[in-house]
Design a protein that fits this description.
Layout (H helix, E strand, L loop, with lengths): L2 H4 L2 E8 L11 H16 L8 E6 L21 E2 L5 H14 L4 E8 L20 H4 L3 H16 L3 H16 L13 H5 L3 E3 L2 E2 L9 E9 H4 L7 E10 L10 H4 L4 H11 L8 E3 L5 H10 L8 H4 L18 H5 L5 H15 L12 E8 L4 E8 L4
Parallel strand pairs: 2-3, 2-4, 9-10
Antiparallel strand pairs: 1-7, 1-8, 4-7, 5-6, 8-11, 10-11
Helix pairs in contact: 6-11
Length: 386
């Protein structure tokens, strides 16, 4: 599929369900169904008009196979996605529309009922293998190994990490839909929070949460007939370095993961880092944002820590990050957060984010994954068709 063909595809529906640490009255099925309905309503499209699907659920009661969703729609979808969710699913759906396999695709993912104990760690990061089960390695430790190596090589300090965490959480505090809305978090608050996995303290870390997210993609031609502001797919890319949470996350293997994905995305539309107005980066831990700025070419390797200081990554700065509050403050409902990053970028390009709106935003860079997980996916979105 030629890259220019993806420029004929637009996001026309974007919706987040209610988000919470726990949703005891919901199942993964019910919250995902809510996400689909919300995204279709946002686009002004009836279910029977959808002819492509990629709807999946996370762990927990009420999980469904994607094929089980077909009966929820009045028509007979001609295309069903194979990518689980997130940016790969968006790029696959855009390719299917551009190739003529379908004209309108609904994507959604949701998770509820997964956490029976408040202290539960994310279950998808605890595979059964000889290293995890014996030694108890967990997500924060995986990403901490990468951060520690960067600190050793380049002198990164906890204060740099705290600035990132404070920026993300400040944006979340301004978002009435965030799980941790109305909470002011300073860098000092981050530095004074309990240690989890050195160098990460509690407020350097993402939460676990529950909720759903939905998107609707269609052809640019069809988008012209809808009463919505379309957001265009400019380009994207994937970068894989190994199986997630199984192989040790070595800096020499994964320190620049995402570089290839970013190069693919920028090449697809003739843009570069300086053209990006909004950075909806995956934020599982504060250092991961610093690492991504280096990997994507915003700065040189080793320069990411000073790069994020002095308000540069806050709304009003040059490269605002995680403007909805990210996985630290908005929500982290299993794999639904992968779509939520795309939704955050879409809303910014629509100009609908109120006090968190990035003035004059034209291009958003969105990412999934990270060094600790040994993969990174990237998509570039714009409010003007290339």
């Amino acid at each position: 599929m030629a890259t220019r063909d993806l420029h004929q595809v637009a996001i026309v529906g974007a919706y987040n369900t209610v988000q919470a640490r726990h949703l005891p009255d919901e199942t993964s099925f019910s919250i995902t169904l809510d996400a689909v309905r919300g995204a279709l309503a946002d686009a002004g499209i009836e279910p029977a008009e959808v002819d492509g699907l990629n709807i999946t659920t996370g762990t927990g009661a009420g999980s469904q196979n994607q094929r089980d969703w077909v009966h929820q729609f009045g028509g007979r979808p001609m295309w069903m996605g194979t990518q689980s969710t997130g940016i790969p699913a968006v790029l696959e759906a855009a390719s299917a529309i551009a190739a003529g396999y379908c004209h309108t695709v609904a994507l959604a993912n949701g998770q509820a009922g997964a956490y029976t104990e408040r202290a539960s760690t994310a279950p998808w990061t605890r595979p059964s293998n000889e290293f995890v089960e014996c030694w108890g390695l967990y997500t924060a430790a995986e990403f901490a190994l990468i951060a520690q190596r960067h600190m050793h090589l380049y002198g990164t300090q906890p204060e740099h990490l705290a600035e990132v965490a404070s920026a993300v959480r400040t944006h979340g505090g301004m978002n009435p839909e965030a799980v941790y809305s109305d909470r002011v978090v300073t860098p000092e608050d981050v530095l004074n929070s309990p240690m989890i996995a050195d160098p990460f303290r509690l407020l350097d870390c993402a939460m676990t949460g529950e909720g759903g997210a939905g998107l609707v993609l269609t052809s640019v031609e069809r988008a012209r007939d809808l009463d919505v502001q379309p957001v265009y797919v400019l380009g994207g890319g994937l970068d894989r370095r190994g199986p997630s949470y199984v192989m040790a996350p070595l800096w020499d293997v994964a320190g620049d993961v995402g570089r290839f994905a970013a190069e693919q995305a920028f090449a697809a539309c003739g843009l570069g880092p300086a053209d990006v107005d909004v950075c909806e980066f995956y934020d599982p831990f504060s250092f991961e944002v610093i690492r991504q700025f280096e990997a994507y070419g915003f700065c040189e390797e080793g320069e990411g820590s000073p790069f994020v200081m002095d308000g540069r990554v806050r709304v009003g700065g040059e490269f605002p990050i995680c403007t909805d509050g990210g996985t630290m403050s908005f929500s982290h409902p299993g794999t639904a957060q992968l779509l939520q990053k795309v939704i955050a970028g879409t809303k910014q390009l629509r100009g609908s984010e109120g006090p968190r709106q990035v003035e004059g935003a034209r291009v958003a860079m969105v990412s999934n994954g990270g060094a600790g997980a040994l993969f990174t996916d990237v998509v570039l979105l714009g409010n003007e068709q290339p």
